[in-house]
Design brief:
Radius of gyration: 23 Å
Mean pLDDT: 89
Number of strands: 14
Low-confidence stretches: none
Largest sheet: 6 strands, mixed
Oligomer: single chain
Helix content: 25-40%
Strand order of the largest sheet: 6-7-8-3-9-10
Amino acid sequence: MFEFNHVSKHFDTKAVLTDLSFTVQPGQIFGFCGANGAGKTTAMRIALGVLGADRGTVRWRGVPVDDESRRLIGYMPEERGLYAKMRPRDQLVYFARLSGVPAAVAKRRADEWIERLGVTMAPTDTLEKLSLGNQQRIQLIAALIHDPQVLILDEPFSGLDPVAVDAMAQALTEFASRGVPVVFSSHQLELVERLCDRVGILTQGRLVADGTVEELGAGAGQRWLRISVAGAPPGWEERLPGARVIGREGATVTVSLAEQASEQQVVAAAQSMGELEHFARHRPTLAEVFRKAVTP
């Protein structure tokens, strides 16, 4: 089990993380979501020992993470940290050797991952000659090649085409299937929704939501409705009793019902304003949950 336990961090007088706590079980993929500046990267750097926490601890298997256990973590930073003038395969082998992987095994793993993730390059190419997508693939391989027991990835899917996204997603899923806790941040909420067992939403350094996508959807709006009315006057949706408009998509609006609001009354009100084309209960998507969680 990998866990953040009441972690707080300040830079000067600014609180970047406040009492951050969450747990990632073995084999679980945890999606870490938040706007830029929410504190996601700071949290990951604390886990890696790049930054120290003001309060709280990061634990692995119940014990605070130290220099020895950090060797078991595969980390992919948002700011890419590979050597531009070095050939990709050489540095993958180098990073694996730093983590204690025997040379022959490191070379074999580098070749296998390069082929599996479809990295396109000539044998003599240095990293800087690769496309940004291929550089991203190499960065991920660097995090995986020593066969880590925990994975922490900061925006691993940024800038990738759909084929590369699928290959990376499969790799993360396979690590999770072997019992590895996986934590990754991403602004691509549809990917988080598809891949993650649990999701945490961070805003201004505080974890404001934590649970499965289904749990977060139920908590954010168990009584959300999608309604479409043809021929209705402008602003009709604002006159639905006990309903608050939270989204629009063409002629369809999504509303959240107040606790005492009646679905039947909403239907009747909608029908009185025009031709009711569509009416259905709606489970919020992660994007909708995210917007509701981070909007004051």
